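Notes from the 1:1 (GR / supervisor)

We went over the backlog. Supervisor wanted to see one worked example end to end before approving the batch request, so GR pasted a single chain during the call. The sequence is below; no edits were made to it. Supervisor asked that the structure be written out right there so they could see what the output format looks like.
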Amino acid sequence: MAQQTILQKLEILADAAKYDASCASSGTAKKNSLGGKGIGSTEGMGICHAYAPDGRCISLLKILLTNHCVFDCHYCVNRKSSNVARARFTPQEVVDLTLAFYRRNYIEGLFLSSGIVKNSNHTMEQIVEVARILREEHDFRGYIHLKTIPEADAEIVHQAGLYADRVSINVELPTDSGLTRLAPDKDARQIEGAMGKVKADLAEAKDAHKRFKHAPRFAPAGQSTQMIVGADAATDADIVGKASRLYDNFRLRRVYYSAFSPIPDASAVLPLKRPPLIREHRLYQSDWLMRFYGYKPAEVMQATEADGNLPLDIDPKLAWALKFREQFPVDVNRSTKEQLLRVPGLGVKAVGKILASRRHRALRLDDVALLTQSITKVRPFICTVDWRPVMLTDRADLRSLLAPKSEQLELFAA
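Structure output shown during the call:
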């Protein structure tokens, strides 16, 4: 077989990494080499973008160490029975690529995952070796996110956390039954056990840092995970419940969602087509409601329809408000922050500005309109000194009035 060039390997392994969505880099400490020491930075912009919640654009070299794999997960394009081109980097090749891309200002960090080659421990050792060389031999201070392997020994995973800014372990599917059916080589208890160990390591490192100034850091940006949406019969209610338990049990920074994408030579047990991408978007919106708007998981589940899935035509916040109209309208001049955060169309920043402004004067509808992108969406759910929705909130056709209008794009529009 002909020897593959670095460029050929990069083409195969960068493409193979595109299915992993969990590469945002929020939460890491800002570091740079402006003082003349080290190389790399966690700040700035480049290509290969991932966006953090604070709006910063993070550029990462996102690749697999190898797409060879001894596992046979039905939904994975890199499963051992899949007929795809294979490639494999050495740790030194990944290091050289990372440094070369950084010096050209293409990236500011590395997201590294891998298929399982030989066994889990061997693969995890190779991933850790990449991070070790970057940190210890090149004093690389950019962002590193390592995808860890739950089947690997806990000590090797711990070593990954000592070099990486963030580590992540994919739970893969929302239900244990789905995991057993579609990923027979994986075990839900083992995955959660590995996540629990990382959580304990994070807590121990945080405590040590309080007592000892130079205590070794451990994954300062925390851990995250990813779930595949639409590969099995799990509903959005199942997914929201699973995400909530993961946040509570393991204190994750993020749960990412990846819509199932049909793959070549797919197994007969998989769906024939992908779920609507808007479904993935609605799950991210529900995640935001739980993390920043004070919604409990059960309340988000109440926004689902009869089939257990969130509506696709409207966002989950509006869906909840339409189901619980007795909670509205709320008075923007008297209601609590928690009540205002339930108003469709009002974001966290807008609510903060309302609370600050109403200390000085009573707010009118025009004042609220300046704080939102769509006052039409807000009007049925609020009262101001000059506005009261009267019967508008109770209209039977309110959903159709507020749902975004579908629009056919024109091919030759100016």
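Supervisor's comment: Residues 42-48 have pLDDT under 50 and may be disordered.
Batch request approved.
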